[in-house]
Amino acid sequence: MSLAVPIVKWSPHASTPEVEGFLKRPALDPVALDTARRVLDDIRREGDAAVARYTLEFTKADLPPSRFAVGREERTAASEAVDLPFKRVASEIFARVMHFGKAGMRKDWSMNTPKGGVLGELFIPIQRVGCYVPGGTAPLASTALMTVTLAKAAGVPEIVACTPCAPDGSVNPYLLHALEVAGATEIYRLGGIQAIGAMAYGTETIRPVLKIVGPGGPYVAAAKKLVYGDVDLDMVAGPSEIAVLADETARPEHIAADLLSQLEHGSGQEKALFVTPYVTLANRVLSEMERQSATLSRRTRIERAVENGGAMIVLCENLDAGIDLVNRFAPEHFEIMTKEPRRWLKKVRNAGAVFVGAWTPESAGDFVAGPSHVLPTGGTAACFSGLTVDSFRKRSSVIAFTRADLMETLPMIERMAEVEGLDAHGRAGSIRFENAAPRAD
After folding, report:
1. Which residues are part of the catalytic machinery?
2. Nearest 5°: CA angle at 159, between 67 and 214?
3. Is the pLDDT at 5 greater than 80, yes or no?
4. Structural domain count, the chain
5. Fewest beta carbons within 10 Å, which of 229, 230, 249, 317?
6. Cα 335 to chain centroid, rounded
């Protein structure tokens, strides 16, 4: 079967309906939102009973609440079952993610006030977080390492992980081992809306978390959106996306492989955009996509995503126009495959992660490079950033005035209090100088 990927011409000076339609993908599915709202309402009211009921309905797993948690014996058995090469890979990825995460952590800092006081910020680990790890269409052991590891690096003491189980209640041993390596303190065999609801609201057997992170399909994304406010979120991350900008120096087989790597995820809503000024390259990439997809184990999922309008090749006037289009798309992943990729890196405005040069496939970021692969989708890379260590920490400002600092600023405090009609605010400053003998700070 040939892939019906359209090749469309585009110019920043003239609207192209096909391209505009491709760019305007919804961040959330309205149907998923309706379903998530109903399920979450039931979980808030009924707790464990609703979680068990929807786990049976959605995953066909008949789980009593006593089986929600993955116990120590099962976790140990999973680690014993996986092969040694995978254990080495998981440990190396853990080390890379931990090293990158710690290198990027913001440090506590302070500065002096004009009169000898101190201002600054403290960064404090969130006490209990929830990491959602998808497992429906593939056991995403990499996501376990890309989320839980960062929470551990941040110093979070309680790290809850939720991941879907099979109909028999089992969880993939490779995924469980990855969670063990990364440092999850609790693991629950729950997925989808019910996992998000259980972490957000708590049940009789699962204590609520303070923040939920991690990617998921449309229903998980909708559930995360709806629980925001009850808990904090990293972002609303939905189906995977990739954009590739390339010139005549790029290898068409490499571009095709990278585009297919995102279309194979399985929701049917993935997006893959290839932008180039070169007609011959565009045609060769399409031929390579058709050839390579025929050899892949998940080709039916790729075909479904393409049938749903998930792939497009765009011919632009030049690379400047191409980078403008990619910035409008605001992709989760953006690959620059040009003669001078760092030149174009400087013009990137909206992308979750940027992959620079011919030797940096998107899969390097997904699996091993170090930065988390949990990234904004649906165009939200224009306003959100990917998951980092600091996603698991709170920032508290610190103000330590001296007597001289307060005396200097008191007229400003009193004037603002007068304008805003907040007498007590003004008095809180002035009362410190009433009938008070001067003293050393």
Report:
1. 332-333
2. 90
3. yes
4. 3
5. 229
6. 18
